[in-house]
User: What shape does this take?
Amino acid sequence: MTVDLQLSVNEQIYPLTVDTRETLLDTLRERLDLAGSKKGCDHGQCGSCTVLVDGRRVKSCLTLTVTVDDQPITTVEGLAGEDGLHPLQRAFIEHDAFQCGYCTPGQLCSAAGMLAEAARGWPSAVTPDVAADPVLGEEEIRERMSGNLCRCGAYPGIVAAIEEVAR
Assistant: This one.
């Protein structure tokens, strides 16, 4: 079965007809040629496919395209603005927060979503006082980014980059 819908990706509208079983990851990569989001595990375990839907982090390999009809989607290709790289992208470069780079698009989108969650005051499992605004130190960042794996082990640079932007 197919459905007609409109995807709003990186502030562009894409009218599409998609199979109701098609994942957002496959739609982004195969139909829209947005290959930044990676297919790592295809089971929602690694986070390399992470994108933002209406500002919230989602694993696009587990998200059916039909469920995000007419919602704003941001991929790594849409993080940068007219005035250049997103602050997280600059910080990842400055802190050498990647090696092979395969997980980097998902790490960047997840970090952007995580910073927005913290700014809204959402606690994590390690937030000491859930009634207070979270302080984004190393432990807090590691917990909030735990759904994104890096096979190369670039975590020290990733955490340092996020910490810098959080300040």
Notes: Residues 104-119 form the longest helix (16 residues).
